[in-house]
Amino acid sequence: MQAQPQGRGGRCSEIMARLPFTTRVILAVNILVYFYELYNWDYVIQNYAFCSYMVHRGQYYRLITGAYLHGGILHIAMNMFTVFSLCIQIEQAIGSLALAGLTLAFTILSSSLEYFSRLMVVRASGDIVWLHSCSVGFSGVLFSFIVMHTYITRAENYNLCGLRIPAWLYPWVLLIGISVLFSGKVSFVGHLAGLLIGIAYVRGYLSILFPSRAALRRMEEWEYLSCLTESLMYSKCPVDPPIPTTDWISLTEICGRIYAELRRACDGISRFFQDAAASRAAANARAGAYEQVADQDPNLFANAPQSDQDIELAYSEGSPPAPSAPSFLDTSHISESPDEKGTVANHTLIGGSVEIGGARASEMRVVGSGPAGRSRLIDSIPRAKKDRGRR
């Protein structure tokens, strides 16, 4: 007898029957909590939404409860669709028990990172309003799952609205796209925190927080979990799961990697501030030297040229010698040679060299004093006449 094609209801029932255990629990918890929100919205949001200020006052349970609340039917629909599309493959790859532990860990870690980031902004800016903003939703955990999904599937590209995006760039494109599309309605800091937690996990920096694969298999043999592990919906931990796991022997290696990354970042920041301080000190020293010259003797450079035309005239026709420069000014690079008339302009030059009577005069700095007695700096000296035939 030929089988009759199933309708939409039968196909949906078949899909739901094949849902792995932990994925089903995640969907059920979020949906049931949302129905409870509809019954008593104000009370739930006021007492259980994630708020950095309330966490700061000791209500640490909000680090978990805020992730399972949603702001509307569209919000929960989009998040649950993402759970359905991601968690099935993740659970089949790593096992139901591992996914349950990761879900709880990602919830706490992403909320904690968001809290500490807001706290640092408040400390830096002094504006406490950053602590009073509240957020709800499972999106922070989902961004960790997105990063983990790209790691497990080993896909090279992802298709987003017809565009092929590299796998490593895909979570960042989603982060920016959602923030722009729903500007002012989503928590950018919460999404970014979840993404960073996911990256830290797949790179092995958080694997110390999770049990090893051997420990997971031993836990599945416990008597209390036997009723779940024998279920058809339960996915057991594979022998070699494609996730970063650790044994306690590798604790030193992981701590060493974290220390090396932090040390590299601190060294880079330290070098940046040292270079900036050195440049600022050098600039202040030069400015102080020029001011000291003018303060000691306002007439020290009275015979110095006042314009570019005076400089050119001094080198082409000769001028009376000016007072010599103080010893702390560097005049060692000045080369003076008499011109055809046997005279030379003895200006105070800082650096460079000059050929009087030749075809060039290299760029130099000339310290002089203006009509008001202020020291001034002429950045360059015009070149001497290049045409020797015109002398």
UniProtKB/TrEMBL annotation:
- Ranges for domain Peptidase S54 rhomboid: 57-203
Q: Which superkingdom?
A: Eukaryota
InterPro entries tied to this protein: Peptidase_S54_rhomboid_dom, Rhomboid-like_sf
| Principal location class | membrane
Record-level GO BP terms: proteolysis
The protein's matches in Pfam families, at most eight in alphabetical order, are given as: Rhomboid
Annotated protein name in UniProt: Peptidase S54 rhomboid domain-containing protein
Topology in the lipid bilayer: Multi-pass membrane protein
**Entry's transmembrane regions:** 21-39, 59-81, 93-116, 128-151, 163-182, 188-210
